[in-house]
């Protein structure tokens, strides 16, 4: 399609953007669905493509229910439409397809897992490319710099539809295979922290002339549910929100809680995952069953309610297997929006929002005694804790407003497209 044809068709319809995600729905990826919904509110037509089969067990938050109508799920290979897409591109563009395979081999030769997964999603990516051509998509946004960005890169190679990518945490830290191949071909690289920006530039020097844009993950700043003053909450109520897996450090939190707790202390754990049984056994072994409650996965609305009745949020993350770790956790943004104090590990992008003794308290990774001391300090001076939480709220208002940041991302995407006279 020529720029003139693109501009002409753009005058009669909204901007069409496809999101590529690894998994849909996924309860913990609230930040992705928020961007999707804000793009819709800004007049875009949307499709969502999941690289894995639809997750029938995870929760789709109420605010994201409209996305069900936009989500698409295809087979990996064994279906007529996927095989048809492969045959189409083999016939129409065999050279381009061959170069993609060669570049995947070159870019991930030292990482056989990424190599095999990239080749595995290739047929499905071609099916997505075929669908996006028929839909006349204007842009593809990969929600992660890992496999979603690989699919978006394949789509651009085969169709010339421009793409952008967001980068968060494990998609950068777990492996850097293919990053130097696909990110320079992206029309926009967005990341969520300055720590990540430096990491990307260290590993993809070709981006030095057009470095990643730092656009924070955001939250909504509604004050429709005023929080109870910390000193009026019954007891000292500590909250954890997130998945229950080793890299999240919930075992460290339970150990620190056992070490520092007072009779009026309570710990509420919201989330689920492979570590749940071990963590429940750990709480029972330490005779904490009466002080710790495991809520399981909860809706976004239930998490907000939990924050409003809590005294403190703890983010005890560590570096896990395969270098999986945090980027800049959305749960901290949400806590500060609710004026909830935060204690967190000094790790990756976390110190960019939890400023020690300014917006909260930091402790060193794996430092159980340091976490216990931070809990004790917060409990002993709730007025100071409230001041830090208010400073956190001010920081979130300035840099983490979801509506503003999604609009910034959308505006950056628009700038990468051919001239459009009727932008929506």
TrEMBL record:
Keyword Transmembrane attached: no
SUPFAM superfamilies: UDP-Glycosyltransferase/glycogen phosphorylase
InterPro entries with a match to the protein in the record: Glyco_trans_1, Glycosyltransferase_grp1
Molecular function per GO: glycosyltransferase activity
Superkingdom: Bacteria
Keywords: Plasmid
Pfam annotation, one family: Glycos_transf_1
Residues annotated as transmembrane: none
Domain Glycosyl transferase family span(s) in chain numbering: 234-393
Official protein name in the record: Glycosyltransferase family 4 protein
Gene source species: Gemmobacter fulvus
Lineage, opening ranks: Bacteria, Pseudomonadati, Pseudomonadota, Alphaproteobacteria, Rhodobacterales
């Amino acid at each position: 399609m020529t720029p003139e044809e693109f501009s002409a068709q753009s005058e009669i319809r909204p901007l069409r953007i496809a999101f590529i995600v690894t998994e849909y729905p996924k309860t913990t990826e609230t930040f992705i669905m928020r961007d999707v919904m804000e793009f819709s509110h800004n007049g875009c037509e949307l499709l969502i493509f999941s690289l894995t089969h639809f997750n029938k067990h995870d929760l789709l938050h109420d605010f994201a229910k409209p996305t069900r109508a936009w989500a698409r799920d295809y087979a990996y290979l064994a279906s007529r439409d996927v095989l048809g897409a492969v045959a189409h591109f083999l016939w129409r563009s065999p050279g381009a397809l061959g170069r993609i395979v060669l570049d995947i081999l070159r870019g991930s030769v030292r990482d056989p897992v990424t190599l095999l997964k990239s080749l595995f999603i290739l047929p499905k990516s071609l099916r997505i490319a075929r669908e996006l051509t028929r839909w006349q998509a204007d842009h593809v946004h990969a929600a992660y710099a890992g496999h979603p960005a690989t699919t978006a890169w394949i789509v651009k190679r085969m169709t010339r539809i421009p793409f952008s990518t967001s980068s968060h945490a494990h998609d950068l830290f777990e492996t850097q295979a293919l990053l130097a191949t696909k990110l320079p071909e992206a029309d926009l690289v967005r990341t969520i922290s300055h720590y990540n920006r430096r990491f990307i530039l260290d590993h993809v020097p070709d981006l030095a002339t057009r470095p990643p844009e730092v656009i924070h993950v955001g939250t909504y700043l509604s004050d429709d549910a005023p929080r109870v003053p910390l000193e009026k909450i019954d007891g000292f109520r500590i909250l954890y929100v997130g998945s229950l897996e080793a890299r999240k450090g919930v075992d460290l939190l339970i150990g620190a809680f056992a070490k520092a707790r007072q009779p009026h202390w309570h710990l509420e754990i919201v989330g689920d995952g492979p570590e749940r049984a071990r963590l429940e056994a750990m709480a029972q072994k330490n005779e904490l069953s009466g002080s710790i409650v495991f809520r399981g996965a909860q809706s976004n609305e239930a998490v907000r309610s939990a924050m409003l009745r809590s005294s403190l949020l703890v983010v005890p993350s560590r570096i896990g297997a395969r270098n999986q770790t945090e980027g800049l956790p959305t749960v901290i943004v949400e806590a500060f929006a609710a004026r909830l104090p935060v204690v967190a590990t000094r790790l990756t992008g976390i110190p960019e929002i939890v400023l020690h003794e300014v917006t909260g308290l930091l402790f060193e990774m794996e430092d159980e005694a340091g976490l216990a001391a931070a809990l004790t300090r917060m409990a002993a001076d709730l007025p100071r804790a409230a001041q830090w939480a208010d400073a956190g709220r001010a920081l979130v208002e300035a840099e983490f407003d979801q509506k503003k940041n999604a609009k910034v991302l959308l505006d950056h995407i628009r700038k990468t497209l051919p001239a459009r006279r009727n932008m929506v």
